[in-house]
């Protein structure tokens, strides 16, 4: 059994960021930038008005009120080509280009429109002018490679005049469930059969992490079919299997795929849940073999599949972020496997929330996993801990 950290490092060493592809800026939300995005324009391109009002010279506002002569009008998008001289004012609007000669906008609410002139009651020299390049200047890098784009980033990229962006291709993850006893939700259940949840949960996780799940179905515990279905992963960036990872003679992943050329990197890690986790390569395709128990499968996916997907997309592949909490109830000493205990979180009077484990931690219990807010991380050989002691947690947000 290898430690969790080593398993993660060995898995990540098999992944590099996938190639970039061009997408319309409007479709780029949630994708990861493959190249820096520099502004192709200066915004605003010239000084513009921040308000509806009049463009004037600040030096005309020393004594108020003052009446200025109207020299014309400049709606947004139709700049005035002349110059505002002392004693003159140009009618303009929010976004209108500030004409030569003017350095100030006075608000229309603070003026009386006299038709051929304007009486300015209030105004401050230099106000309500947005300088050229206030937001950004051409050539400035506004968004850097490796960033997962938010809705706000889409707005910025579009404003920087990019109709297309180069983002990482979505990694394709083949998912193969195994086991004679598992059938898809809604199918008739024979004696001893259970409903397959792993494949669907993994597909949802892959999608949420920016990948494309490729569903290879459910392989029965028969070598030929398992082998044929696994070949469907060719061309994918990763094959994830669930079940068949343990030691029973029906646990076929290693033996069947071994015969097909699976080069095993490791099998079994010092972790609970998830001991029989395996990793290797089937030809060009990395293979992550998750245990069949549904909680083990999802916890291992959170800890190993998510970082792999992050690295494939050029993101920092670090373990899921850890946080701190205090124990709501005591915990016994731990054995040599790093434990990830399902727990709820509630606020406390102090700065850290209170994490309380469920009494039963069986790795088949999806009801507990769904009700949990976090996993409490118990390092190998941790000594018994009292209520109130601080612990590391992995929040389950997004899983
Ligand atoms: N003698 C030993 N037995 C087991 C060991 C061990 O070290 N020695 N390890 C246990 C641990 S820990 C785990 S985890 C499981 C993992 O076993 P497998 O990966 O071989 O998984 P299966 O045997 O195929 O299934 C386990 C369990 O999960 C259910 N299952 C399987 N696939 C799905 C699915 N798609 N959706 C929902 N549930 C699924 C399956 O019905 C079994 O109940 O091995 C222990 N045994
Ligand atoms: O490690 Mo198994 O995943 O404990 O149930």
From TrEMBL:
CDD domains in the record: MoeA
MoaB/Mog domain span: 174-311
Cofactor or coenzyme needed: Mg(2+)
Ranges in a coiled coil: none
Domain of life: Bacteria
Pfam families: MoCF_biosynth (PF00994), MoeA_C (PF03454), MoeA_N (PF03453)
SUPFAM superfamilies named among the record's database cross-references: MoeA C-terminal domain-like, MoeA N-terminal region -like, Molybdenum cofactor biosynthesis proteins
Alphabetized GO MF terms: metal ion binding; molybdopterin molybdotransferase activity
Gene3D superfamilies named among the record's database cross-references: MoaB/Mog-like domain, MoeA, C-terminal, domain IV, Molybdopterin biosynthesis moea protein, domain 2, Molybdopterin biosynthesis moea protein, domain 3
Xref: InterPro entries: MoaB/Mog-like_dom_sf, MoaB/Mog_dom, MoCF_biosynth_CS, MoeA-like, MoeA_C_domain_IV, MoeA_C_domain_IV_sf, MoeA_linker/N, MoeA_linker/N_sf
Protein family: Belongs to the MoeA family.
Protein name: Molybdopterin molybdenumtransferase
């Amino acid at each position: 059994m290898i430690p969790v950290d080593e398993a993660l490092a060995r898995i990540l060493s098999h992944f590099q960021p996938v190639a970039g592809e061009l997408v319309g800026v409007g479709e780029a939300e949630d994708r990861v930038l493959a190249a820096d995005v520099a502004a192709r324009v200066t915004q605003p391109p010239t000084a513009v008005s921040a308000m509806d009002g009049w463009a004037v010279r600040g030096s005309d506002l020393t004594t108020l009120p003052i009446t200025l002569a109207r020299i014309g009008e400049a709606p947004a998008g139709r700049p005035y080509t002349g110059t505002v001289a002392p004693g003159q004012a140009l009618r303009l609007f929010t976004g209108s280009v500030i004409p030569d000669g003017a350095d100030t906008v006075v608000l229309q609410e603070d003026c009386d429109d006299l038709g051929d002139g304007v009486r300015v009651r209030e105004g401050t020299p230099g106000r309500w002018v947005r300088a050229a390049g206030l937001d950004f200047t051409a050539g400035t890098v506004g968004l850097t490679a490796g960033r997962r784009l938010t809705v706000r980033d889409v707005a910025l990229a579009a404003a920087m005049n990019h109709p297309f962006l180069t983002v990482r291709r979505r990694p394709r993850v083949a998912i193969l469930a195994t086991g004679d006893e598992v059938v898809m939700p809604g199918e008739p259940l024979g004696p001893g059969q259970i409903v397959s949840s792993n494949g669907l949960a993994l597909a949802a996780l892959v999608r949420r992490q920016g990948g494309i799940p490729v569903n290879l179905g459910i392989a029965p515990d028969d070598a030929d079919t398992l082998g044929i279905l696994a070949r469907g992963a060719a061309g994918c960036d990763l094959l994830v299997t669930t079940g068949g990872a343990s030691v029973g003679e029906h646990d076929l992943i290693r033996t069947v795929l071994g015969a097909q050329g699976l080069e095993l990197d490791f099998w079994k890690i010092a972790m609970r849940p998830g001991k029989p986790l395996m990793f290797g390569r089937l030809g060009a395709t990395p293979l992550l073999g998750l245990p069949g128990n549904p909680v083990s499968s999802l916890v291992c996916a959170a800890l190993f599949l998510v970082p792999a997907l992050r690295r494939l997309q050029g993101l920092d592949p670090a373990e899921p972020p850890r946080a701190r909490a205090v124990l709501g109830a005591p915990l016994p000493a731990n054995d040599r496997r790093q434990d990830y205990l399902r727990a709820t979180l509630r606020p406390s009077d102090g700065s850290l929330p209170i994490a309380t484990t469920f009494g039963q931690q069986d790795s088949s219990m999806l009801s507990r996993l769904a009700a949990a807010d976090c996993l409490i991380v118990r390092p190998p050989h941790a000594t018994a801990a009292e209520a109130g002691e601080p612990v590391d947690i992995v929040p389950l947000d997004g899983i």
